[in-house]
Amino acid sequence: MRVKVDAVDGHRVWFSCAAGRAEARWVGALPVAGEHDVELEVSGRVNVAGETAEALEPGRLVARVEAIDDDGVVALRLSGGLVVLDEAGPATRVGTFVEVSDARFELFPVQR
Q: Which of 55, 77, 104, 107 is deepest in the core (most CB within 10 A)?
């Protein structure tokens, strides 16, 4: 997934994409402001979304479920990229939108 890192404070970064802006923990060598290819991971409380539009903001993510693997790890579609969600909620189904509240974000740089 491609994001823009807007600000860096140690391993805390503010980042943005077409769906919005949020804060995350950066895992890896510290970035500089600008565009980066990353793996975005999110954890938090998962519920069926009351909306069908992607959203990213501090503590909250709304995205469409792309896939669920055998271990319950979920791939969410956001701004043309994929977000990894560690655990599916009981109502999580492929093709539906979910809302992750109390969301905690981690960004891992990837090489392209």
A: 107
